[in-house]
Design goal:
The chain has three helices and 15 strands. The chain is mainly β.
Length: about 240
């Protein structure tokens, strides 16, 4: 039996991560990558879903080396039959913050810096009360935390979960999925016909996807929803 959840995140702090850098401006796109959500939801380094990578239990709060281990961390979720989609903004607002490094001493000898560290900049962040939506798919029932933390500032967000009952599996046909998808996770098992791209690391996302493949439908919902089937974490070499 497949369990499918519609998850809603409401921000309680400013959310910041650098989607793109434009000169001195560091901009946060109002989307949440599905890799980031797996870490935030505790699916990677909890006791139940932890991988065998050394020092894994400390990975969430301390990284000895700044080397991504997405394949090692997310492959166990494929084995458990767990998949999290990226999150789109249902509503959002942005705030602009200015920051700078300064020396508070009144008398200091001005020396040329030896490191390429910006002395000032502006960060475009997502404001509190912004709302995001994503889906979780699992073979077994999942337990979700009420509160999670996201982004560079470990911003607090409240999670609300609704299980979508009686999902019906439909044979392959063409349909449009207006939500966000990770192209690596869907293109190997479905035929993607057209889409809009959101450029961001570590993998650009796609939305408004016209796709041909099997899908889940939910007769109990007021608004029709077709969710692609056979989405798994895939990684490019």
């Amino acid at each position: 039996m497949t369990h499918i959840y519609r998850c809603t995140l409401e921000l309680h702090d400013n959310l910041y991560y650098a989607t793109r850098e434009i000169g001195r401006l560091y901009e946060t796109e109002p989307v949440l990558h599905n890799y980031a959500l797996c870490y935030a939801l505790g699916l990677v380094d909890s006791d139940r879903y932890a991988t065998t990578v050394a020092n894994e239990q400390a990975y969430r709060y301390f990284c000895k080396e700044q080397v991504p281990l997405y394949e090692a961390h997310l492959t166990p979720l494929n084995q458990q039959g767990i998949y999290i989609t990226p999150a789109r903004a249902v509503r959002h607002a942005s705030v602009l913050s200015t920051w700078k490094y300064a020396d508070n001493r009144y008398h200091v000898e001005m020396q040329k810096t030896q490191k390429n560290i910006p002395s000032f900049g502006r960060a475009k962040e997502i404001a509190p009360e912004s709302l995001f939506e994503f889906f979780a798919i699992a073979r077994q029932p999942l337990t979700f935390p009420r509160w999670i933390r996201l982004g560079k500032w470990m911003s607090k967000a409240e999670l609300t979960v609704e299980e979508l009952l009686q999902p019906q599996r439909n044979s392959a046909s063409e349909f449009t999925f207006p939500y966000l998808l990770n192209p690596l996770d869907v293109m190997f098992s479905n035929r993607v016909l057209s889409y809009d791209t959101i450029n961001m690391p570590p993998v650009s996302l796609i939305r408004n996807v016209r796709i041909e493949g099997e899908y889940y439908s939910f007769p109990g919902l007021k608004e029709p929803l077709k969710l692609p089937i056979q989405m798994t974490y895939c990684f490019s070499n």
